[in-house]
Amino acid sequence: MLKVGLVGVGGISGSHIPAWDAMEDTVLAALCDIRSERLEPYPDKHHYLDFEEMLEKEELDILDICLPTYLHVDFAVKAMKKGIHVICEKPVSLKEEDVDRVYQAAHENHVCFMVAQVLRFWPEYELVKELYESEKYGKLLSGYMGRLNSRPKWSWDNWMLDEKRSGLVPFDLHIHDLDFMIYAFGAPKNIQKHRSRLSGQDYISAVYEFPGFFLTTECSWYAASYPFSASFRFLFEKALVAWEGGKCLIYQNDGSILDLSTAAENDTGDLDLPKTNAYAEEIRYFKDCVKAGRFPDKVKPEELKQVLHILNNL
């Protein structure tokens, strides 16, 4: 049984905590946050207001870091120096050089480390990568990925709206789509970018060019109260694959439409799109690597550095 601690009981922890609790061979024993009220909903866990105290009193196998971005690397290195495996929410940092720092600490202390880039575990996105590699519908011609939201006003100490601490919309939203691109297709050959930024709102449109195809992207923090949405459309030679409104559809050139939202229920046998929780899957993958003594390689440091380099130049 692996003993887990989590630091930073903010918004994203609401996806991590249930995933750990549902895992059959781990126990989420301890939570740490400087706000005691954030710990109260979890009376079955050990509560800490001080990270150093948690590291001292708990014999942890794994630490899950859900803190604000600017704290990720320092907390990860402290834990790894104590021989604790670390999974850390995205982005690992705003600084490209921090990638080497955190991976060096992992290797020197013989522990696992992984950044939780969740789209690499998201079934609909994994399907696109599979179709690209298999050429089931021919070659990829073009694509669109969007991630739109209103300005986040809920963050502790308003850190999300502080560029030096959060990096703003590139590091909050666009990082997801960009990381998936580099994971699935490699580094782009050229980037055309446009940014509309005022006090309190931020919008980016960028076109990424790859050999033989291009991808159009957009992301936003609108000042208006616009609801969060994420979607994609990928055009292959023989079909359009779209994920919009929570439904994944394949519009085939012969006029037929394959609804993968219901395919799993109907067991068509054509394409397998499992109904899974991507946050739970990334955590399970990391846990399995720890148990097997295998360093997680689904998220590679050179890819992380490429992503951070591009984001810092948007």
UniProtKB/TrEMBL annotation:
Q: Which residues form the GFO/IDH/MocA-like oxidoreductase domain?
A: 126-235
- Do you know which SUPFAM superfamilies this protein is assigned to? Glyceraldehyde-3-phosphate dehydrogenase-like, C-terminal domain (SSF55347), NAD(P)-binding Rossmann-fold domains (SSF51735)
Top-level taxon of the source organism: Bacteria
Q: What InterPro entries does this protein's entry cite?
A: Gfo/Idh/MocA-like_OxRdtase_N, Gfo/Idh/MocA_Oxidoreductases, GFO_IDH_MocA-like_dom, NAD(P)-bd_dom_sf
Gene Ontology MF term list: nucleotide binding
- Protein name per its UniProtKB record: Gfo/Idh/MocA family oxidoreductase
Q: Name one Pfam family in it.
A: GFO_IDH_MocA
- Domain Gfo/Idh/MocA-like oxidoreductase N-terminal stretches: 2-116
